[in-house]
Design a protein that fits this description.
Elements: H1 2-20, E1 31-33, E2 38-39, H2 48-54, E3 60-62, E4 72-75, E5 80-83, E6 88-92, E7 98-100, H3 112-115, E8 120-121, E9 125-130, E10 133-139, E11 145-151
Parallel strand pairs: 1-7
Antiparallel strand pairs: 1-2, 3-4, 4-5, 5-6, 6-11, 8-9, 9-10, 10-11
Length: 162
Amino acid sequence: MKFLLLAFAGIITGQLAAAQLKPKLACPPFTVDVMDGNVNMIYPKSAIVEIQTTFPCATDIVDENTGPKCGGVFFKDKDIHFYTDRDYIEIGEGFKGKLTPALMGVSRTTLFKLLGTPKLKDPNWEAFQMGYGTLVLYYNKAGKINKLQMSSKSTEALKLCD
């Protein structure tokens, strides 16, 4: 009887230990090329499956056309979001990765040399025409960049999510 109880306890302990050893899917480092409009060669027009293959650690995936919520692949812990149904990528100030050029926190007054004159302008944001589409930069109260969006669409066709 003791042997049977010991064997049963061993099996249970082994299963519990194996359950704790499940590997978490690791993502490669996120490298954003703002001038080319891509993240690790994933572009705003990329499909959900392509993004999932490159970055298997998404915190949320929303199918396109599922109602009022915009579809895409989201990495909330890294503050980067791929809105596949609207063809743009959004990077927030909590972004964990490499941003080239390093625009986060840069003052809006220093951007002319790099990006030229904005095509659209607002007190809180500016939109620049790029070779790939549109780059939208958002500013905090101090006039420093705190969010950016890279879209494959022109400023006239741009439609962003709330």
